[in-house]
Amino acid sequence: MNALVDLGLGFAARTLENLTKTAFKMQEKYGLLTNDAVVLAVAMRLKADVLVSSDKAFHGVTEVAVHYPTDLRL
User: What is the SS3 string spanning the chain?
Assistant: First the structure.
């Protein structure tokens, strides 16, 4: 966990709004699993520039830019 924080990554909690409104809408729109829909809803609430995931379920999402680990150049 400390290594992720050292890289400048942050962590954010989900809210009831994320679960009851946004996540359900994203689940319906993209057919996401509940956990994936919550991750997307939190990213939207935070106005994240990018969501990085190895989960191809996010393919086609337009609300937040999605990048995969293979897209990153270190």
Answer: CHHHHHCCCCCCCCCHHHHHHHHHHHHHHHCCCHHHHHHHHHHHHCCCCEEECCCHHHCCCCCCEEECHHHCCC
What pLDDT does residue 1 have? 64
Give the model's pLDDT for residue 60.
Answer: 94
Instruction: Return d(Cα 60, Cα 40) in angstroms, integer.
Output: 12
Distance CA 29, CA 10 (A): 27
Q: Which whole number is the average pLDDT over 63-71? A: 91
**Is the separation of the CB atoms in 21 and 14 below 8 Å?**
no
